[in-house]
Amino acid sequence: MAGRLFRSCRRLKLTGSILTGLALTMLLGGCGQQKVPSGLVYCSEGNPESFNPQLVTSGTTIDATSHQIYSRLVDYDPESGDIIPALATEWQISEDGLSYEFELRQGTQFHDLPYFHPSRHFNADDVLFSFNRIIDKQHPFHEVAQGGYPFFQSIGFAGLIKSISKQGEYRVRFELTQPDASFLSNLATDFAVILSKEYADQLLAQGSPQQLDNQPVGTGPFMLVQYVKNEYIRYRRHPGYWGNMPQSEMLVFDITPRSTTRLAKLITGDCSVSALPKAGELPVIEQHDNLVLESRPGMNVAYWAFNTQKPPFNDVRVRRALAYAIDKQNLLRAVYQDTAVEATGILPPSSWAYSDSAKSYEYAPDKARALLDEAGIDKLELDIWAMPVARIYNPNALKTAELIQADLATIGVKVNIVNYDWSVFTQKLARSDYDSVLIGWNADNSDPDNFFTPLLSCGSIASNNNRSRWCNPRFDALLNQARSVTDRESRSLLYHQAEAILAQDMPLVSLAHAKRMALKNASVTETSLTPFGGIAFANIGHGNKPAVENKTSPAKEQN
């Protein structure tokens, strides 16, 4: 709670003193005469893998970086899903759909930090650097990201971009190799952040280019101050932020893996907002008037992916058999408790391309046994890897695995549940050593391609986003065709055909589409839940204060 953050000038503390150092820095020199800084504490669920979202797809890293530290050329309206200006104030698209030209926001300031003092504002050089690093294998910073750029690799971004050119200090042009209706939407994703070329040049000259992704510099609303693994991440408000000034001067991610501990901290006021409340905690939440649970339909999917390159999961009859053996309704009741709907395909009902005609495999153990017999499977034993952390699309993967384990036992299939620590899980997941894995996806924008190409295209196998390691050229051709047209009705029909192929080949079992939920203290305002993944704290604060207008915005400077 805000009132509990800083009550004493003699002793400044919050949740184990995680704000002490930052608060002292801001208040030294006469506490009684200076304004007490405002703060917001978010109980997060895990450690970020990096401080550059270009390099990852995990929600934990996205939450800690994308909307706190960085900005993108364009964003999306959280209500309509429409593309709106961000670091680009306007853009033009050629009639053939092959050229996109962006006018850039002038006067935008990068973070000024102890390890970097910018000498100029954001400009076209930063845009070229941020994307050329991804697509140009000869770029000096390309190989610094040893794990690659999984989202961009999964959508074939390098093959799509013919060139990126500077048309002036504040104007850039992207030339595409083919029309792509999802291009703007992909620039609005959490991964398409803009980095500082000047900072990168400084690091290269110092011989420490790897710091680019671990000591970040962005144009976002908050600047990174300190990160202590397994404990906390501290941020400070960026005084030169181009948008509305954040309400909170300080932001802390209190890393708290256990959901029950996050809830306890929220009840005691040690946290203002909590990540990923579990459905089973609802009765406890209802007993506390100072807690508010917000929810809305989400753009996400939880699924059980089979490694189709490993026998016997390379046999479609085995995959279909396992799909028939799952009692999804029981799973929804036990894991989600009315906070999700059954997934009949990969697209959620909130997508404009959704079709309720997508084939869903009903719970039919007899059909499952018959298909296993047809495949010549007498005894089957398999591993299910379960995520060790909660996610919006699956608040309890271990419980989900246990339910599937019980379902498969009724058809004579033995299941071993594998549950690694998060850091080990992500490393092993990248090596695709599993038989099957419980995983999922939060959409980054409203374009339906975001559910198909990054997760299930042939190209997404190399980036390890395609957890099924499934490749169907007919399916890929439909996705390519859907991106080449702009008419929504035509695109929807193509995605319906793609869903039909998924139901036929069954590389994964879609389980649920969960509501997006946020648990917060009643004093916290402006959480503005969106259907998409990621969380932004720029407009979140305590009390009824509106976001502060940035008096040093580009428009003001130009007058």
TrEMBL record:
Residues 83-460 form the Solute-binding protein family domain. Pfam families: SBP_bac_5 (PF00496). GO terms for molecular function: peptide transmembrane transporter activity. One of its GO terms (biological process) is dipeptide transport. Belongs to the bacterial solute-binding protein 5 family. PANTHER family: D,D-DIPEPTIDE-BINDING PERIPLASMIC PROTEIN DDPA-RELATED, PERIPLASMIC BINDING COMPONENT OF ABC TRANSPORTER. Transmembrane segments: none annotated. Keywords: Signal. GO terms for cellular component: ATP-binding cassette (ABC) transporter complex; outer membrane-bounded periplasmic space. This is ABC transporter substrate-binding protein. Gene3D superfamilies: Dipeptide-binding Protein, Domain 1, Dipeptide-binding Protein, Domain 3, Periplasmic binding protein-like II.
